[in-house]
Automatic annotation (TrEMBL):
Lineage top rank: taxon: Bacteria
Keyword Signal annotated: yes
Residue ranges annotated for the YtkA-like domain, each copy included: 32-114, 156-234
Range of residues in the leader sequence: 1-21
Protein name (database record): FixH family protein
Keywords for this protein: Signal
InterPro entries xref list: Ig-like_fold, YtkA-like_dom
Length: 253
């Protein structure tokens, strides 16, 4: 009888050990499955001056990460590794984070997608080759609104700038910015129109080139955060015209 009890106890002990081992393996497998994954996609090449979209898809296991603590793109020319640029992307609230950048000089650029979420850091790196001739960097060629001496700018005689004021602007949605400038009561064609976008309390300025259609200049922008934004509209042409006008836009969720 004693031997039977000993055998029974040994069987129960081995079964418990086996169950604990299975639970450990399952826990370990689940931990491995619940890793932070960042799928970083960019084109292999582009032309100098062309807008390039950077996109990172962030998941934790099967869960889309919509609230990453840190998500930013950092890039540099491989021949000038000390000079890096960091860009904050737009959170599309579906696990994807996107940003648009323009490379003005040919060469090879390396880009990190710095991501921190669920107390894990992941930083995949990609490279892109930029072909063609160097293009002008408008951020350097155009003075920002703060750098101009005439903050209360008066337009040149007979120049008018009609801006379609935007309302109900929300984050992560495309907003169309449109102006119709005129000179001597005639639509101003073949001009260069750029929107300088400045969020209140931020030092970073974003520049957006508008496209023309019969004297009307439009561009779309996605505001990444709520708050007040100053939009400075710059209008220039080959005849030496350089006018600007500012507007305030409130962005809500």
């Amino acid at each position: 009888m004693k031997n039977i009890w000993l055998l029974a106890m040994l069987f129960l002990f081995l079964t418990a050990c086996s169950n604990n081992s299975d639970e450990f393996e399952n826990t370990k497998e689940n931990e491995e499955l619940q890793s932070l994954d960042v799928q970083f996609t960019i084109p292999e090449s582009a032309e100098a001056g062309e807008t390039v979209t950077l996109e990172a898809t962030v998941t934790y296991g099967e869960e889309a990460v919509t609230d990453a603590e840190v998500m930013e793109f950092e890039y540099w020319n491989v021949k000038d590794e000390e000079n890096t640029t960091t860009v904050d992307p737009i959170n599309n609230n579906d696990g994807t984070y996107t940003a648009e950048v323009t490379f003005h000089h040919p060469g090879t650029y390396e880009i990190y997608a710095h991501t921190t979420a669920r107390e894990i850091h992941n930083m995949p790196k990609k490279s892109i080759t930029i072909d063609g001739e160097a293009t002008a960097e408008h951020n350097h060629n155009h003075a920002t609104h703060e750098e101009t001496d005439d903050s209360h700018h008066e337009h040149a005689e007979n120049f008018r700038m009609s801006f379609d004021q935007v309302e109900n602007v929300q984050t992560s949605e495309k907003t169309k910015l449109t102006i119709s400038p005129s000179l001597n009561d005639q639509p101003l064609e073949n001009a260069e129109v750029r929107y300088e976008i400045i969020q209140e309390g931020k030092e970073k300025h974003e520049w957006i080139d508008a496209t023309e259609e019969a004297g009307t200049y439009s561009a779309t922008h996605i505001f990444p955060r709520t708050g007040l934004y100053k939009i400075v509209i710059h209008v220039t042409n080959d005849e030496g015209l350089h006018e600007h006008e500012e507007h305030i836009v409130e962005v809500t969720e």
